[in-house]
């Protein structure tokens, strides 16, 4: 077992995070003891962030103590691992527009006190800016199925992400266009970030996710 990033471990083909809530799983994942620390298995076929790590993410900007805005929280699978990573001194603000998934997500939040759930449209960041009380986030993470994925990311960056802060954008090509070549979509969406961000790495998520790319970037000073 090797700790590859703070609170993230790897053994053979499997990833794990240090469990913030020992004895509790979120989606039926395996729990195991490693030198007195409980770890949760992190399934790269169910998490685009885990897939990016498996496919060579050079740096994980989400660290213990980070303040993360997570757009597209869904039922809480990946965000629960982000919760593990930031730990008790960090905070994760999870936004999702679906009332159905929010009900399940809130159950995760009840066990994990470092997650704040927000039922809102990520296209309209001004509707939830009061949750930030004038503060800024250190990491913006986005995984949403909308045509204007880069635009949503940029709007939220303008409102909430500090200069020098990091972004991670999971581009879902088929949510943008069914006709255009996938690589053209990746290039087009990434190019939209160039005014605000320096792109540090682009990671194709095959074989874990089809027609997906993770863009790792840093907001310009």
TrEMBL record:
GO terms under biological process: box C/D sno(s)RNA 3'-end processing; tRNA processing
Keywords: Methyltransferase, RNA-binding, rRNA processing, Transferase, tRNA processing
GO molecular function: histone H2AQ104 methyltransferase activity; RNA binding; rRNA methyltransferase activity
EC number: 2.1.1.-
The keyword Nucleotidyltransferase belongs to this UniProt entry's keyword annotation: no
SUPFAM superfamilies for this protein: S-adenosyl-L-methionine-dependent methyltransferases
Short name of one Pfam family: Fibrillarin
Residues that, per the record, bind S-adenosyl-L-methionine: 77-78, 96-97, 121-122, 143-146
Domain of life assignment: Archaea
Family matches, as InterPro entries: Fibrillarin (IPR000692), SAM-dependent_MTases_sf (IPR029063)
Entry's transmembrane regions: none
CDD domains per record: AdoMet_MTases (cd02440)
Enzyme class: transferase
Family to which the UniProt record says this protein belongs: Belongs to the methyltransferase superfamily. Fibrillarin family.
UniProt cross-references to PANTHER family, sorted A to Z: FIBRILLARIN, RRNA 2-O-METHYLTRANSFERASE FIBRILLARIN
Function of the molecule: Involved in pre-rRNA and tRNA processing. Utilizes the methyl donor S-adenosyl-L-methionine to catalyze the site-specific 2'-hydroxyl methylation of ribose moieties in rRNA and tRNA. Site specificity is provided by a guide RNA that base pairs with the substrate. Methylation occurs at a characteristic distance from the sequence involved in base pairing with the guide RNA.
Subunit structure: Interacts with nop5. Component of box C/D small ribonucleoprotein (sRNP) particles that contain rpl7ae, FlpA and nop5, plus a guide RNA.
Protein name according to UniProt: Fibrillarin-like rRNA/tRNA 2'-O-methyltransferase
């Amino acid at each position: 077992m090797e700790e590859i990033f703070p609170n993230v471990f790897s053994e053979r083909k499997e990833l794990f995070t240090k469990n913030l809530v020992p004895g509790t799983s979120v989606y039926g994942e395996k729990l195991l003891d490693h030198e007195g620390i409980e770890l949760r298995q992190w399934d790269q076929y169910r998490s685009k962030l885990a897939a990016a790590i498996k496919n060579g993410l050079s740096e994980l900007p989400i660290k213990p103590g980070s303040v993360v805005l997570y757009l597209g929280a869904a039922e809480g699978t990946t965000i629960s691992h982000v919760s593990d990573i930031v730990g008790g001194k960090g905070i994760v603000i999870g936004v999702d527009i679906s009332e159905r998934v929010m009900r399940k997500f809130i159950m995760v939040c009840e066990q994990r006190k470092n997650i704040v759930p927000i039922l809102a449209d990520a296209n309209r960041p001004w509707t939830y800016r009061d949750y930030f009380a004038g503060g800024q986030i250190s990491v913006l993470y986005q995984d949403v199925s909308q045509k204007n994925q880069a635009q949503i990311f940029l709007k939220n960056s303008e409102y909430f992400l500090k200069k020098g802060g990091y972004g991670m954008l999971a581009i879902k090509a088929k949510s943008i266009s069914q006709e255009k070549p996938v690589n053209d979509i990746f290039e087009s969406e990434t190019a939209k970030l160039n005014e605000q961000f320096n792109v540090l790495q682009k990671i194709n998520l095959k074989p874990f996710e089809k027609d997906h790319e993770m863009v790792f970037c840093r907001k310009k000073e």
